[in-house]
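Hi R.,

Here are the chain sequences for the assembly we discussed:
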Amino acid sequence: MRRKGLASMAVQTVAPATGSTGTTVDLGPASGLSCRECGEVFALGPIFACELCFGPLEVAYELPAGDPEELRRKIEAGPANIWRYAPLLPVPADVAEKPNLNPGWTPLVKADNLAREIGVEPGKLFVKDDSGNPTHSFKDRVVAQALEAARAFGFTTLSCSSTGNLAGAVGAAAARAGFRSCVFIPHDLEQGKVVMAGVYGGDLVAIEGNYDDVNRFCSELIGDPLGEGWGFVNVNLRPYYGEGSKTLAYEICEQLGWVIPDQLVIPIASGSQLTKIDKGLQELIKLGLVEDKPYKIFGAQAEGCSPVSAAFKAGHDVVRPQKPNTIAKSLAIGNPADGPYVLDIARRTGGAVEDVNDEQVVDAIKVLARTEGIFAETAGGVTVGVTRKLVENGVIDPSLTTVVLNTGDGLKTLDAVADSSQATATIRPSLDAFRDAGLAH
Amino acid sequence: MRRKGLASMAVQTVAPATGSTGTTVDLGPASGLSCRECGEVFALGPIFACELCFGPLEVAYELPAGDPEELRRKIEAGPANIWRYAPLLPVPADVAEKPNLNPGWTPLVKADNLAREIGVEPGKLFVKDDSGNPTHSFKDRVVAQALEAARAFGFTTLSCSSTGNLAGAVGAAAARAGFRSCVFIPHDLEQGKVVMAGVYGGDLVAIEGNYDDVNRFCSELIGDPLGEGWGFVNVNLRPYYGEGSKTLAYEICEQLGWVIPDQLVIPIASGSQLTKIDKGLQELIKLGLVEDKPYKIFGAQAEGCSPVSAAFKAGHDVVRPQKPNTIAKSLAIGNPADGPYVLDIARRTGGAVEDVNDEQVVDAIKVLARTEGIFAETAGGVTVGVTRKLVENGVIDPSLTTVVLNTGDGLKTLDAVADSSQATATIRPSLDAFRDAGLAH
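And here is the predicted structure of the full complex:
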């Protein structure tokens, strides 16, 4: 974790706690940024690393006090998107009236067919399906937070490094909100993700290298005058951005009747999503919105990019970077920034981190489609595949409530299943031809 | 409209008003099937054409009587999907508890940026964006109704002829509900639609011919013992299937605060969707859920398959079939079954039917993406393009509330915009290379 470089950039881009209008920044209940390592608190601004210890910053809150029942009712009466949780997010109270994509409140699907297929007790397995978000991945949740921060800090260009899904989410959100956008992707992405990143009319820059190269480049750009005035959603706006993943925890619990599930299976790319889901669950407990109870968090990686899984299995606290080689490109981050925190959470909750190979990913995509009618992208194949593996190994308890995340859409990673999902037969339009094809049921 | 053939098949497949269990068919408020031409009423069953006059059958209801305010409250307290309208649909009251895809309650997006771009008064233009449905098209709405009918009539195989979107919707719904599926598509569909139709594990049959050939083949199959026991969602279950489109009307009005918009722009393939949206609006008026007021319905076609637009412009009551040649394949039905009814409705409401060419379709897709962050499939390009054209021609009033439908997802028709939505630049990961590319803002 090359923190020195990050911190010196943070100092360069530090801003006062007021937006470009000179008024105090209004990000709702967000009261400041606190260092995850040393606890030092900073004013809200486009900074992401602690000046003292170089630790990552995260949003600190003054969360609503008072009757949990009343807060629950207020949330339940809110819009069918993430803004029902606005009182718990770093956004102004009137966020739902501003132009944005209004993601979230995606289905929590009771997956009885899948449960039977992989040996879980029917009624106990759920898929949180984020493919219905506006740009068909969970990234709409995090970008929506970063956009509000960008507005508050007076940025006019939205940017990011991306493995594809984020590029589309930033492009779309910027278009709706009237921002310019310039997004950076590895040059070898899936065609669907490239077109989706380009169609919204912003600048789309392909970098000759993998995601870690793209990320390094963006870190350089943000410290250079060339990047001045740019809001990089996952760099200088990262503390706000990350908070969007908490909404997955909120929705899952509310959809289960304000109950924390016993087991959650979450994909790991940078690891941010998993750590923020844990943060969201802890907040719900603190607020009294759910009862405190034990839960286990399981992280899922693809074998071809499994630095966190490798560290977990080896009993290490540090994550050794890997050079990714997997079809699960949205998870192909070889040097995951939040890897050590993921290890902490998996161990603290009694969970685990596991990985599956590309063949198992493809198989899991098809099992999920065949059993539940959900067409997941490769990242969903990873979580479903890992769930199956952990059930088989006796690590996941099949009699307890388990929620598996599908964070993206199969239409963006068609190549993974294209060869094996073609027409069963091609025939002339005649009954004889149909009879000869042997498909009558 | 070769009605004789259809009617004789209807007689062959007629069933008693009881399901396979021998109990009375429970499809909620649906009381029978009535002929759209002569008004004759039949018992609920898997039939689709009148025995007397060969006219198409549609569902007749005993709709809930009583206080509209109470019904509105009941609907508003319902689930965030089409089943909030279960009391107005041909489905059992407990439909939400059965395994299905729970589509609907998709966003009605206030499209101020698009409004400014095409000359509509900001605040007056809305996009009903159905790309967030489970299989990313409005077809999930209609299939969900057909599935309940199939359950009620004891079918175990779900089938359809499809231009692509329907195939995916049937495959997914069948998988979730535990039905077998066998879907029929033209052999030259977009890759995304083929893979999505195949991934759910049912049989996928490519027919050498266009959609009209596929449709003809399915009509033959349903009259043959080979097709016995099959529920063809858009043939022998068509009366139920079509009702799903009413939910678009319900949602639009509820999302506008229980108000009918002044103008609606709706794509025309078979024309069924447009006629059922009109039916839905009329029901809302009858039930007192909205105030009675004038509204204009505009139909949108692609120039390369514009039989209804041609008939409208020529002042004809009959629709002359065309051989489709357009990139808007989901609308490429050269012989649209409901064409004459569409003409009636456009004329009765003071609307129109218009078409745009493929270049305008592509341009409209990109305008919608660039202004609102919505990536539509070609059918959405058709409706947005037609809206722009009708505003320019002074046919649509830019000062009145207008709702434009986007019925599908850009990821399924990537080819339409792939050439023009690639990376702005491909560079090495260095600041110098970025500077040289001239993209600094």
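The longest strand of chain A covers residues 180-186. DSSP finds 16 helices and 14 strands in chain A.

Let me know if anything looks off.

Best,
T.
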